[in-house]
Amino acid sequence: MEIRRATPEDQGVIMEIYEIGRQFMRSTGNEKQWGDGYPSWELVRADIEEGVSYVAVEDGEIEAVFLFRVGDDPTYQVIEDGGWPNDEPYGVIHRIASRGRVKGIGSACIQWCLRQWPNLRGDTHEDNHVMQHVLEKNGFVRCGRIYVEDGSPRIAYQRVK
Predict the structure, then answer these.
(1) How many domains does the chain have?
(2) Where are the beta strands (DSSP E) in 88-135?
(3) Residue 76 carries which DSSP code?
(4) Which residues constitute the domain of residue 15?
(5) Other Cβ atoms closer than 10 A to 18
(6) pLDDT in tens, 63-93
(7) The CATH number of the domain where 126 resides is what?
(8) DSSP 22-57
(9) DSSP single-letter state for residue 146
């Protein structure tokens, strides 16, 4: 599997994968995390232009997408019911989604991020049991609760390599 930065030409496929991700979340009891149209075309385009959108390619096909960046994330400034294990510089993983055709692709994306930066943070909705499992399987620990831009809560995770 190859992981590379997304290009503007990838955006149509990326949007398809996010739609598959929304449908999958709804089918597994997570109806609230990504409303219709999230992430938007404009947000995905901005991620691509910033160089923080990545795709996982298997046999020439884009199978997954995620955001990865190193640096402070504003949503992680305030954490409740816990705390971060350290205040060292960290990378963040957001918006992982896949077509669902390649087993273990979420873990492969996380492991790639760990090779780029040893201290990672992420978060997910309390109803997203699938993502909670993937994060915990990859050594992330629950650290508390944070709130995303729209004010809704998320379970905060960190992994220190």
Answers:
(1) 1
(2) 91-98, 119-124
(3) G
(4) 2-160
(5) 21
(6) 999 999 999 999 999 999 999 999 999 999 9
(7) 3.40.630.30
(8) HHHHHHTT--SSS-TTPSPHHHHHHHHHHT-EEEEE
(9) E
